[in-house]
Amino acid sequence: GQSLEQPSEVTAVEGAIVQINCTYQTSGFYGLSWYQQHDGGAPTFLSYNGLDGLEETGRFSSFLSRSDSYGYLLLQELQMKDSASYFCAVYNQGGKLIFGQGTELSVKP
Amino acid sequence: GAVVSQHPSWVICKSGTSVKIECRSLDFQATTMFWYRQFPKQSLMLMATSNEGSKATYEQGVEKDKFLINHASLTLSTLTVTSAHPEDSSFYICSARGRTKGSGGNQPQHFGDGTRLSIL
Q: Fewest Cβ atoms nearer than 10 Å: which of A6, A92, B16, B112?
């Protein structure tokens, strides 16, 4: 089976940097993805790490260490609109995308 | 970018009604489509996976006779909730993925906007 763990909630202020961690256990690993979901909306794709290291896309970066079964999403220069739920997700051997429980990020002024 | 269209976005109906939700990939061929369900403040739970032209594969605990999935073409999959009851009220989200290029990794999954189903 597979399981993913991430903090349930994180609070930060505008302009700050926040890191959301994700540890996973899966039989067969084919990449770690991150999704953002605003209240009432559908998930939107943020990033994908198939190999170890850091991927940067604008204010967002994602890191993966396969040996540690660990990754994180780094959000810089936080804005109010970044308040949302963030999900890490892994592809398993069957090619299915399995989601973590989500981290609710609250950005305060 | 890749677009997945899901309709309807909101359904309210009486208990016992069957509800059909459509999921279309607008600018790519979706060889695989996925259906998720999400309850408030919870994660997305995979219900089933469907490949074009073949029967859907359901996750453990999901009743295949209650949640009928059809993936008749490379651009359309439908989920029918049969004889819906209040406990079926949820946010249903489809996702589509195109052909995988090369031998490594997976194509990103693109999500529809979801369907909020409320059964009275």
A: B16
List chain B residues with pLDDT less than 50.
102-105
Cα–Cα distance between B77 and B62 in angstroms, integer? 18
- Provide the 3-class DSSP secondary structure of residue B86: helix
Mean pLDDT of chain B: 89
Query: How high does pLDDT run on average in chain A?
Result: 93
Q: Cα–Cα distance between B74 and B64 in angstroms, integer?
A: 21
Distances (CA, A) of A10 to B34, B63, B111: 29, 36, 25
Q: How far, in Å, CA of B64 to CA of B39, rounded?
A: 19
**Any CB–CB contact under 8 A between A44 and chain B?**
yes
What secondary structure letter does DSSP report for B31?
S
Question: Is the CB of A41 inside 8 Å of chain B's CB atoms?
Answer: yes
Residues in chain A with CB shorter than 8 Å from the CB of B47 are none
Measured CA to CA, the distance from residue B77 to residue B31 in angstroms comes to: 10
Q: Is A42 helix (H, G, I), strand (E, B) or coil?
A: coil
From CA B75, how far away is CA B32, in angstroms rounded?
10
∠ Cα A58 B105 A19 (to 5°)? 35
